[in-house]
Amino acid sequence: NAGVTQTPKFQVLKTGQSMTLQCAQDMNHNSMYWYRQDPGMGLRLIYYSASEGTTDKGEVPNGYNVSRLNKREFSLRLESAAPSQTSVYFCASRVSGGAGEFFGPGTRLTVL
Amino acid sequence: ELKVEQNPLFLSMQEGKNYTIYCNYSTTSDRLYWYRQDPGKSLESLFVLLSNGAVKQEGRLMASLDTKARLSTLHITAAVHDLSATYFCAVDAITGTYKYIFGTGTRLKVLA
Question: Across the strands, what pairs with B96?
């Protein structure tokens, strides 16, 4: 099992450009998450999907959109990137409430 | 406002010493999670505590949960250099929503 995979690993964007971060899990987990982690800080939840077909906002959803494409895949889109979105983005999944999350390796995004 | 606070934020300790990291939270959640993050890496699940009084141990780390005090502790026994990392606690924002809130993290450095 690959666990949780994310692409790309690194990305540099110019202000105003758009891009989609991809996430996939092969553990048959119901819930999937997108977080951002800024230097020296904890993780902040951007969006999550409790189950296939549902998505909900987290703490910091502004400037982002998500799509739960199927049970395996959960993508995060930046429509018009801003320097404030420079961060490391982590995707995670878990089987259900009461279970720990499995994290992907992260995407390091820089917006110039 | 939901808060998850950890202290200390930074901890430098000698090998062989004991220490405790504290995690206070403001929700009524009865579930708490501990994660470890090595520099430049993703997060790894350490412990899942699912009820009041739960205690879990793995090697030199022991985690406990007191839901009445809204407090979890991560105790380090006879620290070794390999334990150097950042440790995060997280709670369910609202039971059943599958939505996590992370603490700010405790950066631990164990000196040889």
Answer: none
Determine if residue A83 is left, alpha or beta; phi over 0 gives left, psi from -120 to 50 gives alpha, anything else beta: alpha
Which residue from B16, B34, B1, B8 is spatially nearest to B108, judged by alpha carbons?
B8
Distant-in-sequence, close-in-space partners of B100: CB < 8 Å, separation ≥ 6: A33, A45, A101, B33, B90, B91, B92, B93
* Closest Cα in chain A to B10: A40
CA distance B54 to chain A (A): 13
**Residues on chain B touching A43 (C-beta within 8 angstroms):** 43, 88, 90, 102
Query: Which chain A residues contact residue B50 at CB under 8 A?
Result: 98
* Mean pLDDT of the residues in chain B: 92
**DSSP state for residue A77 in the 8-state scheme:** E
Q: CB-based contact (8 Å) between A45 and chain B? A: yes
Q: Per-residue pLDDT tens for A12-64?
A: 999 999 999 999 999 999 999 999 999 877 899 999 998 899 999 998 999 99
